[in-house]
Amino acid sequence: MDFLGIEDEAFLRGKVPMTKQEIRILALAKAHITPDSIVYDIGAGTGSFSIEAARLAPQGQVYALEKNAEAVSLIQANAEKFQLENIVILHREAPEGLEALPNPDAVLIGGSGRHMEEILDIVTEKLPEGGHIVVTAITVQSLMQCISYMRAHKGNYQYDAIQVQVSRLEKVGSYDMAKALNPIFIVTCVKGAF
Amino acid sequence: MDFLGIEDEAFLRGKVPMTKQEIRILALAKAHITPDSIVYDIGAGTGSFSIEAARLAPQGQVYALEKNAEAVSLIQANAEKFQLENIVILHREAPEGLEALPNPDAVLIGGSGRHMEEILDIVTEKLPEGGHIVVTAITVQSLMQCISYMRAHKGNYQYDAIQVQVSRLEKVGSYDMAKALNPIFIVTCVKGAF
Amino acid sequence: MDFLGIEDEAFLRGKVPMTKQEIRILALAKAHITPDSIVYDIGAGTGSFSIEAARLAPQGQVYALEKNAEAVSLIQANAEKFQLENIVILHREAPEGLEALPNPDAVLIGGSGRHMEEILDIVTEKLPEGGHIVVTAITVQSLMQCISYMRAHKGNYQYDAIQVQVSRLEKVGSYDMAKALNPIFIVTCVKGAF
Amino acid sequence: MDFLGIEDEAFLRGKVPMTKQEIRILALAKAHITPDSIVYDIGAGTGSFSIEAARLAPQGQVYALEKNAEAVSLIQANAEKFQLENIVILHREAPEGLEALPNPDAVLIGGSGRHMEEILDIVTEKLPEGGHIVVTAITVQSLMQCISYMRAHKGNYQYDAIQVQVSRLEKVGSYDMAKALNPIFIVTCVKGAF
Are strands D38-42 and D61-65 parallel, antiparallel or unpaired? Predict the structure, then answer.
């Protein structure tokens, strides 16, 4: 049985920054992935989203797009570690490469590399009604690019944005000390949901 | 297909306070519920945890314990609304009633009514190795009761505590205004995990 | 002796939203107000910032601009309650009215009413080198308007932005329950500080 | 003119952990220090609280107690850097050393070294009515020790506890990335205030 919410330590990650477990759980729950979903993971980083998505969609397919070569190797290594064969890794900087892919049911955007608008334009063409886009952003600019796009395309999307700040209580002797993780914005966009 | 993460608005809730969607998602993901799990939902409130747990465990069984009569009715109404037949509602104040239940695989504690220690004592007897307890707490006292118990029973448990603060961006005309939800502590305790 | 950090309950506030004590303390500390400072309080609301600023600048002068008539009355009432004679209240929607004022040493912007850029343009003309602008924002759009302005005027300003989220532990019987206040962005801009 | 809220970078700090600027500002504002206050800084660390307190109390006196030798040197160095002569540094682990000091008007407790109760017992004897204790805590145990003490001494104190979580927007090229600081509990206790 595969649970949503793999521990961070279970991933191979090198020096590539990785979204933390709690944010992965929330973003993936909000993406409404089904067992046969086609999922894009854009700016896939270590592949932690792709791994969790591939487990939620064992009869589906995950397309992981990542521009950084070191990160691409990590996605490959993580896919092997978790014995997942339904992840296709593309060493591409989105939106490049998206056009040729089968239409997605869910799109995860963790890194947009300053191409948020172009990415959303292509995704909008390909995403069916009821499909979900979930953007995780650590910068206010990425957040705003996504929100501004959704506000400009009200006819196509409903969006819902949250900010999540998790602190972990680390054990220091007989004390539990709160250590903050960086706050993350999660924007969930549903196509034609109105 | 049933997703983890039902929208708050989908529950009937009257005036009973309800844990918010993001906290439910995280607590349930951390509880490692499987399709045939036996789950206790202690201090079940509106039953929102029970409903989500019952969907994750379609071949299992959820036992919802709740002392407040109005809340008991809401759990019943929500179980009917979501057409779930694997929820047994007990109008009891835990630990009362726990003894007679089949052993659990996962225990959710949302309200302990000042009986945290007694509840954990009984649960400890009944929970198998590898079983999970997930406590959600809004007060620092409940958090400490749980942490102190776990520190005093190091031979039995490993615990991991986080605090989660979610803000929702509410749309006010062309602006998105951050509205805070109360921060919640989530303590995940795994029996014999070392 | 007048302390920075008047309790929220000490202000008359009607139904006008008011920035909370902790945010007032931080914003005012970051504004570097001296005893003879000229201060603008733009979008003054209940006047809570103006009152605290007027106490920090007993030989200076505070100009409170506010478009809402009910709020203007509250500022007046609060100035009387705290016996402050160095607050000039202007029933105006900024930037209207700013031109005629003496040059400021510190500018507090709590509400910009969609005129952030025009307000900052005029303030930039009037603010001397070393002068401070402190913007408090509850919407991501106001935050971005301020940040974008500062990034576009790098030759004039250095800015520093934080987000602050305060929770108050409310006493409920023998428990202390965390109640969240909305997170606020505070942007501190110093003219010619490089 | 000395402002409350010295920049973190202005302090010499070696490897000694230091409370961040925003927390210092809030704790000091809540301590109601006057120009002639006697202030204790218990668990003084780098001395950042002592420095700010000494500037708020130019005719008063600050007693900095610190058990760690490296930290004691830093307090000395910071007092010299900020040219403050009203700080007495005691290389002691509180409550040791407190008995002999003149009665305080305000007591800052940043580190209690597991002696919270004894420290509060002695401080309670020496603090006059209307005096303030401000405890900053990063662990939930320190928070609870303080809150439990205050609840057990309701005849002597009123307390008010908050949790503050600050994130700083770091500039990364044309983006502003939210970096979290650890959440801190601040408990303000006023003697005989009822």
Answer: parallel
